[in-house]
Amino acid sequence: MNRYTWRTCCLEIALLAVAFVFMVPMFVLVAVALRHPDGVQGFLGFTWPLDFSNLGDAWVESAMGPSIINSTWITGVSVALIIALASTAAYTLTRRTQHWTKGLFYLFLAGFLFPGQLAMLPLYLAFAKLGMVGNPLAVVLINVGGFMPFAIFLYSVFLRDLPKEYEESATIDGAMPMRMFWSVVFPLLRPVTGTVGILTALAIWNDFFTPLLYLTGGDSRTAPLSVFTFVSLYGADWPMVFSALITSVVPILIAYVLMQRFIMRGFASGLKG
Amino acid sequence: MLSTKTRRRTGAAALAAALTATALAGCSTGGGSDDANVLTVATNGGDAMKAVIAAFEEANPGVTVEVRDSPENYQQVTATQLTGGTAPDVIQVFPGTGNNVSVKIAGDKGFLLDVSDADWADTVPESSRDLLTTDDGALVAVPMTFSSIGGIYNQGALDELGLTAPATWTEVLQFCTDAAEAGKVAYGLGLSDTWTTQLIPYALTATLVYAEDPDFAQHQVEGTATFADSPWQTALEQYVEMNDAGCFNESPNGTPYSEVQDAVRSGDTLATVSVAAENSTIAAGGPEGLELTYAAFPATDDPADTFLSATTGPSFAVNAATDKTDLAKEFLAFLAEPETQIAYADRYGDTAALPGDMAQDSAVAQLVTGYVNEGRVASWPDQLWPSTTVQPALFDGVQAVFSGQSTPADVLATMDQAFHE
Amino acid sequence: MMPIKSRSAKPVRTAGIKPPVWFLAPAVLLYLAIVLIPNGQGLFFSFTDWDGLGSTWAPVGIDNYRAVLSDPNSLQAILNTFMLTLIVTIGQNVIGLLLALGVNSRVKSRHLLRLVFFLPVVLTPIVAGYLWKYLLTPNGTLNGLLESTGLGAWRQNWLGDPEIVLYSICAAVIWQGAGYSMVIYLAGLQAVPAEALEAAAIDGAGAARRTWSITLPLINGAIVVNLLLCVIGNLKQFDTVFSMSEGGPSGASETMATIVYKTAFTYLEYPNALAQGAILTLLVGVIGFVQFRLTQRKALA
Question: Which residues does UniProt assign to the signal peptide (chain B) (predicted)?
Fold first, then answer.
């Protein structure tokens, strides 16, 4: 099963065909973004010639550069905190098998249920009272608290399947809990850390309403807010919206590729161990 | 002594009360910048505000005006900020009722400063004044534009076919036939964006309903008039008649408004009925040399009957929680000056609300001014509707009529029900 | 990461591993402050007449709930939400799993394919909704493609026909979410030890058989996670629906979340919106709990 057989070849062709179908909406997105106002329209709405100036114009007019920097650090700090807090919490919840840990686990799961509208105003009023509206730190805290259920759930599911031998031998060696966790357990969690990292990063990067509510007008706009520079009251400048969107998702794609490698490496080392 | 059970319950109530107190204790400081020389202004109207602030900054050395433009979710965000005490110093509000950032709702809650004693207050025309005044009689906002609904025609495309913008109802139907024969769509309709469902009904009822009975909404409140038993029925039937006559593009319900804009720009669609500000939006995204004509949309066969559906547009108020009251009031006075009004309206693509003695050159403004001077203007009906469920009932109803699931009579019956909710 | 032996391992003495309780403290505190307390407050206000503006309110008991439950529009929205959740959960997971199996194989383009299938996931959901709206107009890309490939008879009014609109939205949601499920399945598949599959292959099991009886049981964790996220996420589905159809035409694609939004911001009945939010929470809770118990029992069996 390690060889490249004719079956693999068929599979490859089939997958590439599916990939093409998947990409059709993407092609249209690019076609609209690069539409030349006087060009001749062809396949999927691509014009000839293409107009690449929209990408640059959208980048400049929406101040995408600073927004990406804001989004990057808000997302980065949030994800780092989520991973640190959720992995330790999930570890404690799965390794301490008592009634209250089970109850607490379900309490965290309950966080999945709320539709967002319930807490919106009370939460905003609390942050307004603390004088933190307009402060990106508010968005970070909301992200970290809000994604705890998701991250703890993913970590718990994978932790249950993780053999305890490593930890046990480390405990016998007399390692401190914190040290033992970071040097023994956390590296074993690499694949799930990669998954949690990319999926929370994605959701935080793309979140529109929280930054809109908390950061509107300030100097700390995030990338999706910049995309909406070109949406106006009665309509939108679609070539510009889609151009801005393309430039805004590049960082998250790079993160995905890096995370994929991270997951792979974790896989290899996890198996060997 | 309290039993354990009661004590626990009291504890829960106390906790709830404490949480509530925390949540509701308003923030004392106004929103926006801590810098005394920075004035923050919230708008959802695009660049128009940015176009006028330079003059204010020049007249007030050291002062900076920060514009926060958020077309998406403007009402939700601003209403939340008002409640949280974090709203900007000057905020765009909506005349009449209708949403949480409207004069009659936010104003009645005490969120907007009373500016009745301002020098410019007397220049606000009677028709606008009512919509900008709270129920306590406080004028709270300065109107910027007078917004109307009419037909926007691609003049180049009309010239090519030798057509002119229709001035009577029969001409409208003829226009549709002529367009169809030339392989064009007469009027683009993008009902997938629900706000567009109301445009043609408002344009038609201006002439059919509100020209005949300006106090129609009042009569509805008193119970002496209903949608169902009024020329609203005729208006919706004419809407359907247009559809039957092939005036619109294929399946309006599945068509987004942005596609209509593009089709008018390219000339594949000859016209659309929309708000006046769309003249400049459509022109801005179109090819060079695109010429648009704006005309009132007729509903009868006598051009002299035609009323223009028009009302007070974006208006600005001072946040009552601001600590820069004087600067903010000064800014409102600046907005009320004729030069500012015209600069704003030109950028917004509409007619200035308080032009004073100055004339506004744009074709839109001239048309609107003509109708205003002749007294042939009717307000947008929804600004006088007492219930927030009437307009959504119209939106849903129009879509249902276009998908063949409802009739004008049913839609109006539902609207009557919503009106008295 | 999950060697197969862990599953067969006896529930061994965990006495040696007792992480300190304070490991939980920061997570619990933040969760309380950001999620539980504000939602508790929201729930509290659903029993009052607070309109979300200003600071006056009075308790009204269950009046808001009574008003909401007697509204016939809510029923249609609940049915739509169940339909959407069912279709999307099945579609997204079947496609996501197949894609994960595909890109986990030896195909040469697997790295590229992983990127391609993930691309839709990175788009801001609201903008992705607009993109699909653009594709599905009467003269849009899809109808154009059907026309040019001789399938003109399949042309539809994808978003304008009340009978079709919900399915069109499902397709867009699945397109955006399949890569998401794929990533989670892939993480599970990476942990399936090659030895187990090779042993089965030597025993003469075909590819389909190996997948069904060896791979699937081993990625049960990923299946549980995916199904739960999918069901819960789609019961609360808002962004794509709202940007594609605003719940229309005339309510044909209204979901519970769009109803809550409209009640709060169009009808300005904030207390009723809170009551609807609470009911939605309860429904998601019941369904999520039942599903979690069912799948988890299977997973741990």
Answer: 1-25
